[in-house]
Design brief:
Length: 438
């Protein structure tokens, strides 16, 4: 089996160096890790400038350079005079936030550790061979030994709750209570306080996991802060949304954010984990791993896997059960045109082919709404159990991303042709493409 180590060469991490002058004086900093920057005194990098938002931007040193991301700040973030949402910063560039200019330079690359000694392909019950997942496992293994609160951020199906459990089991609190509060599933507001109080009491001495805390009303968020200050338990937050942006929007309380943001770990989506899909699918298939033929794998690796590892596992279950057409439909309905999907070959090789059914064949010319619902990818099922506002945001985001992907494919990535076909101004089309990473 080809591993991610063979596919993904290890590149020395750059060492970005920042210099700037603000109201507090002159500063010089070498960045070794991701930092949240803003004017709030609890930020990991504080910029003393009244024109800078409390949580203004993120600085993320990667092997290919320093990446800067705006966090929905009120005055924006600029690189060399250009307003950005996210950008890689070349050496000698200037990042402007508020009235402060930060100059970026690069030092010598850090020496890489011995690959054999740097290896960690599992944590708890989760596995990953890509460099990004090995980084996550190493970071969480270290954090598990501390008492720091942790935010685990990632898309649906990336294993956030399983990682939270693994942290608990690897910590000094193992054996103590492990309590998960599904904030999005709490009852009406009058009963939320009572439900939270019960959960907080049950978690004493152990670990409290707050899943999707952004779903809590602001009044409840305020009441939640004092119990967290008491530190009777460790707090781990799992979230699909960037809480810093919500703070800037006034949708999440800043004091609560800083009480839970001892460390933030982002779990990459499956589509960004180069080399992980094949070994994970083979493990899910078990003794039927031969079903993962080269032709099938080539098609699967082109999919976005919006449901991530959870969707891949469900796909493998259907493949194992022999429900091949259903498996193909589940994996492809939100990703490719059915009539573009060539064929799925039998595990034995060229014994035959079975073409995936087209959408009209599956749904009929005028399908009942219930039938359409049954044809939705199974990974989307949890979306229908969350608050309507978040459901709508996710649904629109998914639809926009897939629309743009197909639009750019049809127009061979010609922005002029795409803007004409979609009826969009070209500048707005650019913003959408940047937003969705298409």
């Amino acid at each position: 089996m080809t591993t991610a180590r063979e596919l993904e060469p290890r590149v020395p991490r750059c060492r970005p160096q920042l210099t700037w002058t603000d109201a507090a004086g002159s500063h010089a900093l070498e960045l070794a890790e991701t930092r949240t920057a803003g004017s709030a005194v609890h930020c990991e990098l504080v910029v003393a400038d009244k024109a800078v938002s409390r949580l203004h931007f993120e600085l993320d040193p990667q092997p290919d350079g320093l990446w800067v991301r705006d966090l929905g700040s009120r005055n924006g973030t600029y690189v060399n005079g250009v307003k950005i949402v996210e950008a890689r910063v070349p050496a000698g560039s200037v990042i402007r936030v508020g009235t402060t200019d930060m100059t970026v330079a690069y030092g010598n690359p850090e020496p890489m550790a011995d690959p054999q000694g740097d290896e960690q392909v599992s944590f708890g019950g989760l596995e990953g061979w890509s460099a990004s997942m090995r980084d996550v496992f190493r970071t969480l293994s270290t954090l598990a030994k501390s008492e720091s609160s942790i935010i685990i951020e990632g898309e649906p199906g990336t294993g956030k709750k399983a990682l939270a459990r693994a942290i608990h089991d690897a910590s000094s609190r193992a054996g103590q209570p492990f309590v998960v509060v599904e904030c999005a599933g709490l009852p009406n507001q009058s009963e939320i306080a009572e439900a939270l109080e019960e959960a907080l009491g049950s978690a004493e001495g152990g670990t409290l996991v707050l899943d999707a805390p952004a779903e809590l009303p602001l009044a409840v968020q305020r009441e939640l802060t004092p119990p967290l200050d008491a530190k009777a338990f460790r707090v781990i937050v799992t979230t699909q949304r960037d809480l810093r942006r919500l703070v800037n929007q006034g949708a999440f309380r800043e004091n609560l954010y800083f009480r839970i943001a001892g460390a933030t770990v982002r779990v990459p989506p499956l589509r960004a984990r180069q080399g992980d899909l094949v070994p994970l699918l083979e493990r899910f298939l078990g003794d039927q791993a031969a079903l993962a033929t080269p032709n099938l794998l080539a098609d699967l690796e082109r999919l976005p896997w919006m449901g991530n590892v959870r969707e891949l596992e469900l796909y493998a279950e259907r493949l194992r059960s022999g429900d091949l057409v259903r498996a193909v439909a589940t994996a492809h309905l939100d990703a490719v045109d059915f009539d573009d999907f060539r064929s799925v070959r039998h595990a034995e090789g060229e014994l035959g082919t079975m073409e995936a059914p087209t959408l009209p064949t599956l749904l009929g010319s005028e399908p009942p709404a219930a039938d359409i619902g049954r044809m939705l990818p199974i990974a989307l099922e949890p979306w229908f159990l969350i608050g309507f506002k978040e459901f709508r945001e996710r649904w629109i985001d998914l639809g926009e991303r897939e629309y743009l992907r197909r639009l750019m494919l049809r127009t061979s990535r010609s922005s002029s042709a795409a803007s004409r076909e979609a009826g969009l101004e070209r500048t707005y089309l650019y913003r959408l493409i940047k937003k969705h990473g298409v």
